[in-house]
Amino acid sequence: MIVARRADRLQALAAELAPRVPVLAVPLDLAREGADLELQAALDAAGVEVDLLVNSAGAGHTGRFHEEPADRLTAMVDLNVRAVVALTRRFLPPMVARGRGAILNVASMSSFQPVPYLATYAATKAFLLSFTEALGVELAGTGVKVQALCPGNIPTGFQKVAGTEAVPFNRTPPMSAAEVVDTSLRALEGGGVVVVPGRRDRALVALQRFAPRALVLRLAAALFRPA
Questions:
Q1: What is the pTM of this model?
Q2: Given 3.40.710.10, 3.40.50.150, 3.90.660.20, 3.40.50.720, which CATH number is that of 49-224?
């Protein structure tokens, strides 16, 4: 089952996948309160049991916090944080009861430090990292795996929506979505909870642990400062 807000793009993806795998497409705004109940109803109607939950829906926007529309910021928190908590709470208990399953939360390299001009987005991703690491300890021995996937620059539609097309970060070496997915699923099999795809990005995360916090913030600001 695939879920997204934009029905036209969702149906196009379902049509692309259909020759290779059975697909049920459910148009749904996951940021809306009660969306987890609607999704559960659709799953029950289709007789589908969730063994792997991938929380990949997310939103971001570049700008100074005090200049951003308040509704955009709260909608970002609703989708990036509240929806993930609601969906995880709904589908995790049956996994624990069955003794198997996995939850994959798509976080970001932004999970590891504050990011000026992406302040709210980075904070929501830091929440996902903390949330997932805590669940990893709680779920030890249950047969259920969790992962926080923390990719860097991946060319997708996110850049256009977030307004990051012209920021310096967008000129850093990218990874393809296919490479990131492959790395994530291989790590999930091995039980890796925090996964940073790509050697360069892993090296950056390691360096941040030793670099002064003020320097890390200045570098992040330089990479994401709007043109």
A1: 0.89
A2: 3.40.50.720
